[in-house]
Every structure is written in C-alpha cells, then in structure tokens.
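Weekly puzzle thread! Below is a chain. First person to post its structure in token form gets bragging rights.
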Amino acid sequence: MIWGDGANRSKVSLINELPSGIEVFADPLIFKVFYNMIDNAVRYGGKITTIRFSVEESGDEDVIICKDDGDGIPIDEKEKIFERGFGKNTGLGPSLSREILDITGIAIIENGKPGKGARLEMTMLKGAWR
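Winning reply:
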C-alpha cells in the first residue's frame, strides 16, 4: 500500500507484517490510533519511505510495533509527544491515542532512535489479542 499526504505528495510504502486476521481486544477507536501513527509518520518523518507494522513476543507480553525509516523523534520529545497540546499540528493525536489504548490496558511508548526513524510500541498482556 502507498500512502501520501495532501501537502507532501511523496509516497510512503506501508508494510503490514501483522498476522492475518489479528483481533486486538481494545476500544473500537483503535483504528484511529493506527491511522494517527501512519499520518504522523508521513507528516513529520522527513525523509521517510517506509512504515512497517509487526508484532514481537516479550515474556508474558506481546508488542505491536509501528516502525518507520524517517527522521525519528528527538530523545527529549519521546514522552512529550503524548502530552496534550504538544506538537506541530493540534498536538492531540498521540495523547488521544494513548488515552484510547489505556482504556483496555495497552501501553504505548516511542522507542526509536533519532535519525533512524520512529518506533511506536504498543504493549499488551498475552491474550489481549488473537
């Protein structure tokens, strides 16, 4: 899938490596969370060419990862992006995403390396998806 925003007609490849038919037990607004992650990557990723979704096991948790190859997020902004009002547009996307995920016990953090791309990790207990 190719994704491009209206202002910057660049094309970004969207690669979905999540298991086919995955169901996450979460608030129905989780679709907005995924949309926001993609939209923010395209808007603010700079040299971004690829966004990839995957899942990893980590002990008694599973982690859904949204990783891109863009500019990344500065270390001092990794937690601030989840604060209401912080950001270049409305500043609501990541903070609302965290609130939506928190309703069903899913945590989200930014764990990418500046200059190497953003990496959003949504952590949930095993059994929170199938």
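Puzzle host: Confirmed. Bonus trivia for everyone else. The chain has a mean pLDDT of 87.
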